[in-house]
Structures are given as structure tokens and as C-alpha cells.
Amino acid sequence: MNTAVNRLERKTATVYHSSNKLVKVPFFAILASSFFSHRSMMCPKILIPRWWRGATILLATIAPSIIFFYAKSQSARCGFVMVVMAVMWVTEVIPLHVTALIPVFAFPLMGILSTGIVSRLYLKDSSMMFLGGLIMAAAVENCNFHERVALFVILHVGQSPRLLALGFMIVTSFLSMWISNTATAAMIVPIVDAVVKELTKLREMDVIKSNEDSHHVGITNDCEETGHIAKNRYLRRGPDGTYIDMHVIKEETNEESEIEQVEVLEVTAARTRKEDAGTEGETRKEAERRKLKAVKMECLSLKQMLFLSVAFSANTGGTGSPLGCGPNIVLMGLLDSFDNSMGLNFATWMMFNVPGVILCSLLCWLWLQILFMCCGKNRVQRSTPEMEHALRKFIEGHYRALGPVSRKEAVVVTSFFILVMLWVFRDPGFIPGWATYYTTPGDSVYVKAATPVMLMVFLLFCIPAESKPAPGAKQVERCMNWEAVHKKVPWEIVILLGGGLVLAEGAKHSGLSIFFSQQLARLKDLPKEALVVLVCLMASGMTEFASNTATASILLPMLANLALAIQVNPLYLLIPATACCAYAFMLPVATPGNAIVLSASGMRTSVMIRAGIVMNIVCIIVTVFLINTLGYAIFDLNTIPTFSNSTTL
Questions:
Q1: CA atoms within 13 A on the CB side of 60
Q2: Calpha distance 564→558 (Å, rounded)
Q3: Helix, strand, coil shares of the chain as percentages rounded to 5?
Q4: What are the tens digits of pLDDT across the range 236-249?
Q5: In this predicted model, what pLDDT tens digit does every residue of 559-577 receive, in sequence order?
Q6: Which of 108, 282, 493, 597 has its CA 20 to 30 A from that of 459?
Q7: CA atoms within 13 A on the CB side of 51
Q8: What angle do CA 344, 346, 349 make, to 5 degrees?
Q9: What DSSP string describes 409-450?
């Protein structure tokens, strides 16, 4: 397992760190290729000319420039930059984080924002909180605690196909709440791959063993009983390769005082020709090949089911906390533009979204059972108790190989637990938070979410992992080191988040927000329940073709202006839209986590589309239901914030 895990870890690491290479063709080509066979999945290279990148960049800058030349207002210039960035984010003609740097030179040159203001927006409180969360996630991965959690849950949930999928979904959903869904998928995929390979080996061995038992020439009981006569028949191979039909007749006489047993051997010369035996052997081999092929197809379906359970639960679990995925941080940063957070903090976020994670994960588990165990010709069959016992021994062996919990693991997990408690009770709303003791009335100093996470990160770099230096080492190893941070933290995501925050600030400062509010006010007559459904469909559809963080950066400022224009609490539209930006289940280009799963499993894109389209619909229904029930209880959505009359962000 270690060899397989190491090999797959290298593979997934390559996919993760070079995720931009996985999405080098436009989304319409990916959609077209999904309808072709597995061999023709490389068709985008044939259908799309090589110069499409340059053409897209040229069109993305020339076409919107009409706005710039005919309407020279500041808002038009900001709209020009926004359109260019939106096109480049969707098509990914250049890396996403490079596109996010456009405002650094575009906004000052166009007179929208100064360079100092733009630069500061790239590292706001929400971005620093997300960066600290990424470092804490790297610490968890560095001490292999994720593997211990995954094996522990699988051992105690069960080893049948249904329970394996449930176990992996529980682990992935929980980890993706605190770690980015991309990193979670990269950590869990090697474990899933090792388990699938062991299951495949066990099922193939079971087929081979059953064939050997059925082909074994030995005693076969016909048990033809007449009175006290029992006849047993068996075949014995002769010296010339033919078979002799042997009859052993046992005559038993039972009396009250004694039992007499007489055995008579009767041999009948029922010989068969060697050619018949050879034909029978070929038939057996053909049947064995068919059985092995059926088992391999069944194991392929099992592999797809388990890998999709990881990909889908990583996406749904990412909505459980503000740290789970990029759109959550975009929303938290956007709310900093308001005078108050409207009651949305770490505690209320989890109160609303954790029930959604549970519901969506449960429905996802049921849907995958229906798709792979109840539909199609290659259905996943139930496993035997012997097979489950063998798989349990396999998992137990690797769990014991991890050894006892090390001091580093204990320190990292304790620090993470303390951090979550500090986040939840910083300003929970229902009781005074601990941050209020460091803020006096009228004081401009506030303790926000970035403060506790950076405190814990600093402590991890200070606390020693062992009581004494390792043999040959000059100093004691710390619980975290900068080499692990440099290797495991995706710095480009912080830049991508900053680009979205700069766009929102530019729209506010240039007056583009007011223009959007005036145009979107025409939707005031539309029922807000229908509007939130349209918003969810739009967010879920856009995130299938573009990065979820980029989608949120484009969509959320517009929805905030829409809510202000139609006099609706902004959270009524922003929270469902943020959640739906993470519901990218259909295409591998939607999130790097999907790309990792698709690459590791080797499944076709059409399989992911078939399973993901239903998940999109299910999660949208759950989100709309929760915002219209639980959302009103937690956020008091009937109340319109006082600043909503300003019609600006």
C-alpha cells in the first residue's frame, strides 16, 4: 500500500500544483469532448486551433474597449477591466492568479484607485485568515493526521461498498470544512486508491478460488438413497488422461444390538475421450475469463463510486465553515465593505451551513448508491463477510503501522481545536465574545478572525515536536517548519481572492455599483423566492466552467447590489450564491479537486457529468429550502439593514 500511496501522491501532487495545465481548453470544448468515446477524449487538440489563446486574449481586450472609448466615465473604465478579467477567468487563457493581478496596473492607470489602496486590498483580514487556515492545513497534512482519521473512520463505519463510500464521505466532508477542498481531495485520494486496489484483488481471488473449487475433480455426492442404500459417485483421472466413473456403494444394516457395514466397490468403464476433456477445459477457461471480466467491470464501478464520493463530499463539505473554499472568503471580504456583518460570523455561518453539509452529503451518498448499485449492467454487488474481514485486516495493519499518536500530532490537533473554539466564540452573537474584552467603546482597534489563526501558526513554529533532538540533528524539530509551508500552501489562491476584493472595491469607488443597482432594480417585481432559485442556478452553472473563487468574485458584488436595489436583505441572496459556487460536480475544470479525482480514477468525463448533474439539482433544492427556513431563524432575513438605502456596497 505504501508504494501505491507514494506513487499516487506524486501523481496527485503534480495534478494539484499544475492544475492550470489541466484546464487549457475552453469549457465548450470540454463539454463537446464529454460526448465522445474514451479514445476521442483528446479531440479538443484537433477541433481547437493552437492560436485560440492569443485570439481570446486579443478579443477580450479589443471588444470591451468599445465601452472604454465611447463612455469615458470612471465606471465605464472599471467595467472594462471587469469584463476583461471575467473573460480571462472563464477561458483561463492565462493562469487565474495572474489575471487577478491586472487591477494592480489597470486601476491606477485608468484613474480608478491608487496603487497603495489596490495593494492593501490583496491582504485584507479575510485573506490573512484564509492564509492562516492554509498553513494550519499544511501542519495537519505534515503530521499525517488526516490518514489516521480516515483509517479510523473506515474501520469503525464498515467495509462493505456502501459503508466504505459513507466512511470516505464523512472523512472528506469533515476535513474539507477546515482545509481547502483541493488539498482534502489530494490527501484522501491515495487512501481510496489503495483500498480500491485491495478490494479488486480480493474479488479476483474469490472468483479464481470458486473456479478452482468447481473444477476440482473429487467426490460428488448424489446421495441416491433407497431404503438403507446410499450411493456416492466420484470421478478419477486415468493414466491415459481419460476419466473413470467410480461408484462406492455403502450398505448399512442397523439393528438394536449391532451395526454391520459392508462396502462394495463397483467400477463401470465409463471412459471419455481426451478431445472431450480438452473441449470442456476450454469452456471452463472461457467461463473463467467472463467471470473475471465481469468482476473487473464491477470493480471499475466501485472505483468510480468511491472516487466520486470523495470529489462530491469535498465540494459540499467546503461550505461548512468560512475556511472551506474560496467563495466563502470572498463573501467574508465583501461584507467588510458594509458597516456591519448583518449577523454573519464564524458561529452563525456554521449554524446555517453544517446542516446543509449533512443533508447534501447524505443525499449524495444515496444517489451514488442508486447510480452504481441499482442501475446499469455493471452494478456493484454486495461483499461477502469473508471479503469484508480480509479488507478489515488490511486496513487494521496500516492503521497499526502509523504507530501511537506522536507529540507533533497531539500539538497540531490541540492547536487546531483551540483555534476553532477561538473563531466560534470570538463574536458568536448570542453571548459576548472574548474579542469584546480587547475592544473599548469608540475604539478603532478590533480583533478579527485573522488574529487567532496567526497566533496559533506562530505557536506551531515555536513548540518543539520532540523532547530532544533526533540523532544527528543539531536542534529540536518544531511542530511546523517553513519548508512544509513553502511546499504545501497554494499561495496563488490568496492572490486570486485579493483580485476579487479589488474588483468589488473598484466597482464601489467608481460608481459602477450604483449603475448595477439602477439596472437590477427592474427585478423588484419578481418574487424573491423565485429570484433566489435563479441566483442559485446561475451560480451553479457558472462555477462548472470557471474557478469557483473567480465566479464568486464576479457574481457576489453584483448580487449585493441587486439585493440593495430591490430592498432585500443581502444575505438572502449572497449566502445561497456562495454555497452554489462550491457546488461544482459535473466537470473536472470546475475545481482542482474534481481534476485530481478524474486523473487518479481514470474515469470518463461523461461519468462525472452523469452523476454531477443530479447532485447540482439536489444541492440547489437543499440550499433554497434552508435559506427560506433556517436562514430566517438565524439571520432575521425579514429585517432590512439600515445601510441598504445607500444603494452602494
A1: 21
A2: 10
A3: 70, 5, 25
A4: 444 444 444 444 44
A5: 888 888 888 889 999 999 9
A6: 493
A7: 3
A8: 60
A9: HHHHHHHHHHHHHHHHTTS-SSS--GGGGG--TT------TH
